[in-house]
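Worked problem 6 (solution included).
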Amino acid sequence: MTLFNLDPFEPLMSQLTRPPAFMPMADVAVSDGDLVVTMDVPGLTEDDLSIELVDGYLVVRGEREMPEVADNVNLAHRERAFGKFERRLKVPDGIDAEAITASLDHGVLSLIVPKPERMKPKAISIASSGGSERRQLETAAR
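Solution. The predicted structure is:
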């Protein structure tokens, strides 16, 4: 009794239906002061990842290596993706690379990117009508 049907076209079909190389999914949240990027990188360690700020892009690179199987073991089915990856996320001009923090916890990479001061919300006060230094709009009709 055989456990698997051997189809002569199976190697071709498995190439056509194989999942793409590993590409971690990312979420980007925006608060008043920060951009927060979270990326799923299951099975990776700090040594497997590199993070850079290059020409206005936050670049995360890494590799998820395929585990080795013994010579006498035939893999019957594979769905998990492996390989090198690179994610490039556009960030606003003026980001301070030294202020970016990164952490890796249970396969989730978190990056906190502080916004430049020019992007942070600023409250604007309303001058009272009795203010002595109130600027006036110049109009053509006087």
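Discussion: The chain has a mean pLDDT of 82.
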